[in-house]
Amino acid sequence: MVTMGIKTKAAVAIVILLVFLGSMWLQGGLENQWRSCMKGFPQDQEPVIVTILNDTGTDSERDTDRVPLGKCPGQDFQVSRLLSYLLAAPAPPSDVLLQPYLSSWDELIKFMEALGPMVGIISQEIDGKTSIIRQLARNDAERQMERPQEEEVREGEEHIRANADGRRDWKVEERPGPQTAIAVKTEGKDAVGEERHFADFGESYLSVRSMIQVELRRGTVDFAEQTDSGCRTLLRLHRALLWLQLFLKKLGEKPAAGARLRSPSELCREAYQQTLAHHHSWLVRRAAELAFLAMPDRGFFFRLVCVHNQDDLALVLNRVVRAIGEVYQRTQNALEEYSMLNLP
């Protein structure tokens, strides 16, 4: 029989703890169970909380946005593909298409998985969130084929009238007409002329705002209890997107004269503390910080986006940060308009 040393046992225990807490990453599910237990522990100094990044870039930076990004050989994550999906997500006048939005998350999940198994645990939870919205969309498409739209709208209006207690400003808007699959032009020399087609989700889950509207009509959203609604799931993804945006922004920043480049681990931890951490319990925060300790060095990120130095990394990441910012701002506005920024 092989016996484990103390260090090995400790490592196994940490991994098990991270796997367990990883499932609570976006849920905040430990908050109620651990709140009373954690009262006796000293609390960290409150970090500066970031709720949105307003970075439109300089004129010279926006000029470089026209330069196509090439494919990075030998890896699953492709920054050019991520940027294509992000740029395809905004829809007029102020909406976000769910299909390219979720495809953007597919690439971000690959990005996190490339950072090692510890950060990969977090990506598994996020992947579960995107699967929830996709399943809701598929179920909705099947539902639309089985019953007339007029009947659903009538039932939704009756539900809103029955729940009109003055606490929420619910609006019943006209739903979009029949939609076709979305075609998105991808970037990169290897993708000239290539179009990436998204399967049609149907009208209700075509965009962020259409999903909000239909789930309010159906009473799917609960403002007091946790549910697996698309709106609540989107909110968890929305919060995580700000964390990744801030991390990428910090990773692309150039140090001041005479200052050192900070490690990705340090930058990721700081970005987490300024965004997601205040939604999590003390125990989840500690587990997250353990995961960030295992993050690769800066040279790994050069290879991940196919650049050779910090200046080139900044150019690429700033493009991604600005594209995320547009998607994030539109989603933020929609959730705020319907008082959904604090869904349980």
From TrEMBL:
GO cellular component terms listed in the entry, alphabetical order: cytosol; membrane
Organism: Anguilla anguilla
Record protein name field: Glycolipid transfer protein domain-containing protein
Glycolipid transfer protein domain boundaries: 97-153, 200-306
Domain of life: Eukaryota
Segments for region (Disordered): 139-175
Coiled-coil portions: none
A single GO molecular function term of this UniProt record: ceramide 1-phosphate transfer activity
Pfam families: GLTP (PF08718)
